[in-house]
Design goal:
mainly alpha; 15 helices; 80% helix; globular
């Protein structure tokens, strides 16, 4: 590919990544104050259930959709082509945001759950975008492109809460209509910019979804190992993402705007870090990932065990090691397991994150009834455990290389 085509491909991928996470993160500054301080109506007091329980379920449904979407969309794009799947999912996610706005306007909790589930199902396109970059780029430019895509995804976690927080004087529906319009614009740009590459001949979409989903990769020991370690790590990350806004409301009495400002600082640092995270490192990838995971565990744990100001420092510091961790693990996985299909491999990584969202939202539904900080402490513990496993894997990889060097040397 020429430099110009590379630039268009990377820019389009980053735009779609930005827009998808912007929509996914919109409710994070909106829902905590709504369920903690909002009026007791059919939305915040549905069927007389505790508001914190309803809040946790509202957080859970979007990742459930993401889980299903990322498990199959990457493999389906291997079969039908990246471009048509990206266009279909982007337009569908825009319609999901419109339904979400209608649910909030009508105070319909069931419709809100349905809309968030459907939106999550179609926002699983990040696996397609990553696969597109991994497939069509090679060498250092691929590493940088993966890192820049991560930066765009992180930036979406800044833009979404910022949009949700700074429209606090407008109706709750406004941020979702804005997100829907932006997604439609992104779909139009992707339609114009991406080349038409035909899919591969093969079975029907239902057969692909049923038989070639990302979880099929768990038959392979190496990918099963990666899945387990990545799941433990992302449980800590998702506990942080899902419950630090609620922690800010309860500990610091923050409102939508204040939560958005904290998020701006964190995601701004994360985005800047991601721009440089793809640079080559001489450290063995899994050992580097273990060091970064330890730093993330300390940051998440600071919210559960520290004061407001210690927790705020932890929120800011979380962004740096997490950005470098993502670039390290995703590039390593693409290099080591790409033979299984980049769409399926990237789908497995995205699916792991979604599953962690569901698990920690379910745990939070129980633990927050006692103390929100418990969820953060549990998440930090899981990430710390993942770091120990990565350290062992990295040491094993170094020993294997040393043995191979000895075996291949002069006798």
């Amino acid at each position: 590919m020429t430099n110009a085509k590379n630039a268009i491909l990377i820019a389009t991928a980053c735009l779609l990544g930005l827009l998808s996470t912007t929509g996914a993160s919109l409710p994070y500054p909106i829902l905590p104050p709504l369920f903690v301080h909002g009026a007791a109506d059919g939305f915040t007091n549905f069927m007389g259930l505790p508001p914190k329980l309803l809040f946790a379920v509202a957080l859970m449904v979007n990742p459930i959709g993401l889980l299903l979407g990322t498990a199959v969309l990457g493999s389906m794009s291997d079969r039908y082509g990246r471009r048509p799947l990206l266009l279909l999912t982007t337009v569908g996610a825009a319609l999901g945001h419109v339904l979400t706005a209608w649910a909030l306007a009508g105070s319909s909790y069931p419709l809100f759950l349905l809309a968030r589930f459907g939106t999550g199902l179609l926002e699983g396109q990040s696996a397609i975008v990553r696969a597109m970059l991994a497939e069509r780029l090679e060498g250092p430019i691929r590493n940088h492109a993966m890192s820049w895509l991560n930066g765009a995804l992180h930036l979406g976690w800044l833009v979404g809460p910022l949009l949700g927080g700074f429209t606090d004087r407008a109706p709750l529906t406004v941020p979702f209509y804005v997100a829907a319009g932006a997604l439609l614009l992104g779909a139009a740009l992707a339609w114009a910019a991406l080349e038409r590459v035909p899919g591969r001949p093969g079975p029907s979409w239902w057969t692909v979804a049923r038989e070639r989903h990302a979880f099929n990769l768990l038959r392979h020991p190496g990918l099963r190992m990666l899945f387990g370690v990545q799941l433990a790590y992302t449980c800590g990350v998702t506990a942080f993402y899902e419950f630090y806004p609620l922690w800010l409301v309860e500990i610091g009495h923050y409102d939508r705007r204040a939560i958005a400002l904290v998020n701006v600082g964190m995601c701004g640092l994360m985005t800047c870090a991601a721009l440089f995270a793809g640079r080559r490192s001489d450290m063995e990838p899994m050992r580097r990932a273990a060091f970064l995971a330890c730093a993330v565990a300390l940051a998440v744990g600071s919210l559960g065990l520290g004061t407001l100001w210690i927790g705020l420092a932890g929120i800011m510091l979380f962004s740096l090691p997490h950005a470098f961790y993502n670039a390290t693990v995703q590039t390593w996985a693409a290099d080591r397991f790409g033979g299984h299909g980049q769409g399926a491999v990237m789908g497995l990584l995205s699916t792991t994150f979604c599953l962690a969202n569901i698990l920690m939202a379910a745990a939070g539904a129980v633990l927050t009834l006692v103390d929100t900080r418990l969820v953060l402490v549990v998440g930090a513990g899981l990430t710390a455990w993942a770091a120990t496993r990565m350290q062992a894997l990295g040491q094993g990889a170094i020993e294997e290389k040393e043995k191979a060097a000895v075996a291949g040397g002069p006798t």
